[in-house]
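Worked example 2:
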Amino acid sequence: MITDAADDPLDAPDLGPCCVCGGLEDVQTIVMLDKKAPIAGTGWGCVVCDLPSDGAVAVVCDLCAAAFESVSDPPFQYAVSGWPGAGGRVPIGELQGTHAHDLTKHPESALEFQDHDPEVQYFDDGDE
């Protein structure tokens, strides 16, 4: 049976300290950053555009997530170095390089690059 970590807090993974406030409670949100991870292979990647799992991540507690939910530039103090629950943290300013999707390889973004008929359904959105 598949369970949701929100259903049982004991099943929630330990992501380590919040990268904004350093708190340890209710750290449940993982944020993909547009910089390279300090340790290659321990971050986010994309199978669609063949982006390796080298993107930096930050983890955030529920209080900080609610505080910056509508802010475009959250006040991260740190990024994860290694795996979130087992790795350390590095100051956000020490991250190097850019890590971003190749949007030319993403069919869902192709509509942004071409004229299209709004009456034509290009992708199945589940509504019938």
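The first strand starts at residue 27 and ends at 36. Confidence is low (pLDDT under 50) at residues 120-128.
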